Amino acid sequence: MPKPEILDPQGKAVHGALPRLGFSGVTDVRQGKRFELEVEGEVTDEVLDQVRQMAETLLSNPVIENYTVHVEDAAVGAGA
Amino acid sequence: MKVGVVTFPGSLDEVDAQRAATLGGHDVVALWHGDHDLRGVDAVVLPGGFSYGDYLRCGAISRFSPVMTEVIEAAGKGMPVLGICNGFQILCESHLLPGALIRNDHRKFVCRDQRLRIENNRTPWTSSYDEGAEVTIVLKNGEGGFVADAETLDRLEGEGRVVARYLDVNPNGSLRDIAGITNEAGNVVGLMPHPEHAVESLTGAGTDGIGFFTSLVERTFA
Fold first, then answer.
1. DSSP code, position B170
2. Is there a contact between B92 and A10 if contact means CB atoms under 8 Å apart?
């Protein structure tokens, strides 16, 4: 996500479009990115550390963006 | 001097940059994003365009191309590097320059003849200009809003590292009207406007941009 202090023109554009479509009551919109990574084997702390490194070096720009990493139900991926 | 101009997939302005460097009196070496060496150049220009389609973030993928490993190392040793527009974005993503470039605050692509003030003429790219010179150089960008935290902005201004500032209008929402900056050592310069498009009166608003390409020589013989 863009850091709170960073202007988010895309979010502003979306925010501006909502009332035009009849949706009211939204006070702000911020637009970010979501990456879904599938990894081999179990999601160990080591794997998570690596993913955080990926987030830090390539997936996000820490100068203007914050990121969070979380694990989604592995069974969903495995069963699909 | 031998000036290398890098072409990334999606670069647009490398031919103009090559031409401008030639007009500035240099031998031009075309470098490719996949190159693993800089082929003996004395300086590097990262041109404008949409390298790697601006995927992920502008400059984010170019920053990890093989040639950039060499550019980053050479820049660390003092080689002059000029990043124009997309090149500026690549330099920020490479952390050779602080801050970042985000989408224009008004959300539209902007293309205009932009008045600028050259505030730092002590870099190898700006020594042809008088300090405080007011010039007109074409600007064209969609993601040209320069941002950094207040502390970084204060440091840039305090250390005289703002190379160029927008005059008359702020075309893209850049904080403190910043159009270009340099690194601590002063050899790496990032600039959002396009001096390489302002080197011949036939095709531009004037020739105010040529100084960026003649400065290298003057510095060498100074």
1. -
2. no
- 3-state secondary structure (DSSP) of residue A76: helix
Residue A56: which domain range?
36-80
Q: Which CATH number fits domain B2-221: 3.90.780.10, 3.40.50.970, 1.20.120.80, 3.40.50.880?
A: 3.40.50.880
Smallest CA–CA distance from B56 into chain A, residue: A59
Where are the domains positioned within chain B?
Answer: 2-221
| ipTM metric | 0.83
pLDDT by position in tens, chain B (length 222): 999 999 999 999 999 999 999 999 999 999 999 999 999 999 999 999 999 999 999 999 999 999 999 999 999 999 999 999 999 999 999 999 999 999 999 999 999 999 999 999 999 999 999 999 999 999 999 999 999 999 999 999 999 999 999 999 999 999 999 999 999 999 999 999 999 999 999 988 899 999 999 999 755 554
pTM of the model: 0.93
Chain A: residues touching B (Cβ < 8 Å): 2, 5-7, 9-10, 12-13, 58-59, 61, 63-64
